[in-house]
Hints:
Layout: E1 12-18, H1 27-45, E2 51-56, H2 66-76, E3 82-85, H3 89-92, H4 96-109, E4 112-115, E5 120-121, H5 126-159, E6 172-175, E7 180-183, H6 185-199, H7 205-214, H8 227-235, E8 242-245, E9 248-255, E10 258-265, E11 273-276, H9 285-299, H10 303-310, E12 330-332, E13 340-342, E14 362-363, H11 364-382, H12 390-424, H13 430-455, H14 458-473, H15 476-482, H16 488-498, E15 499-506, E16 512-518
Parallel strand pairs: 1-2, 1-3, 3-4
Antiparallel strand pairs: 4-5, 6-7, 8-11, 9-10, 12-13, 13-14, 15-16
Helix pairs in contact: 6-13, 7-8, 12-13
Amino acid sequence: MNQKTISSDARVAVYIRRSRDEDGIGIEELLKNHRQRLQVFMNEKGFEGVEWFEEVASGGSIDGRPEFKRLLSNVQAGHYDAVAVIHEDRLTRGDEEDRGKIKNIFKATGTLLLTVDNRIIDYNNPTDLLTSGFTGLMSEYEKAQILRRFRDGKITAVQNGTPHSGTTAYGYTWDKNTKTAEVVQHEADVLRMMVDWYLKDGLSAGQIALKLNDLKIPSKRGGFWHSEVVSTMLQNDFYTGVVYYRKYKTEVDFVNDVVKYTSKLNDDPETVIKARGNHTPLITDYEHAEIIKRIEELRKYKSKDRRVRKNTYRLSGLIYCPHCGLCQGLMRRKGMANRTHVRKCLKKSTRRTPECDDTRGIREDYVFEAVKMRLQQYRDTLFAPTEPSDDNAAMNSLSRMIKAHEAAIEKARKHFDKIKEMFMNDIIDMDEMKEEKQRHSDIIKRNEAELTKLRMNKDFHDEERKEQQRKLWSSDDVERVFNNELSDSEMNDVLRLLIVRIVYQFNDEGGVDIEITYR
């Protein structure tokens, strides 16, 4: 085969790689553009039976490009006469070792490299090899310069109080004009509600996620809330008004010959840059410290040990000291008809008060029977019929408004597929597509903001809570609790769904006052 010619019946492979969306039109769209250019090139040359390789990956290492590794293996096996790419650096950009490995395989098999600007590169040709080497060095220099400018830009941004990368935290939106994170008020209100639930009401991250989902408040990505997301948000000190550079580091590992990137907290504080951000804080330093303190206290206990103690008795994890607010333990006393006993407050904590020493233990069955009676009364109230009122009319109006906003969001989302289809059929151009997508995105954002405000309305919140409670309290398991048809462990599982906490205190008449907080 001639060095600078290639016949139309040659065996050809095509490799397409994109590492980032430089033009803001989406990786898939960029891949499609490259695919079209290379298809035109293939048609012009008359190549048939072409094998295509496509991937989205950085060009820094062969190990991070699984499709390219597969292509290189085929080249080494002599499957192709030539490989076509948009530009030579799509194939050989990387360190000197990788570039040398690629060139040696192409050289040993006599495989040519074709580019869409009609270059035919033969690595057995000294001139082509020299030109390619110079191109590779320039590509490596360009890559190093890009990385340096990218790194310097991030450091400068952080020092100026600007978050340098990543998705903007819930409660904020990125303003490209002011170059800062601006508060999204309806999301900020939700965050404040989460902080209050966690610190004041003592709810767990999982319980907060359930409440948000019950209220149909969407997460940052428009989906459901999960305990891990809530926990991560509450711990995020970006909400206290700080920004970082190198707070996290990326570790590279290879699993089954596939590169895997893992982000971990940087354990070298000297390399971390921290600065006061120019965004508005949504959580105070004191609140953040209290959140971290509570999470650290929970981490002191191994999950296995917590599970063992969680529901041994009917009221495990439900009875709290009225003074320090910490959970009181239960124990089974031998020699007293094997009865379960609620222990006095014995917790050693900075929250402990002198009044904790005056608390008294009590038989668990006394508390349980009183609680069961109160639960039955609460259930009767929950299901009691209500008279029509102006409040009911207001709730109906609120529900209609919510449905209207939900319908508007659904309609706008359906338009995205239509916009893409119109662009693919050349009915609209790229600028028109971007304009339409932005317009419908704005419609969705406006309606989601109004929807969140309506769902945070106290009347709606209360009605939604009552509806969820009615579903929960009408279950067969609740009836089985009243009829003592469950084991202690099963009963505890059901009671935890109904009750947040139980507090008891002995009064001056020698009786016991019991206060129950329901979910």
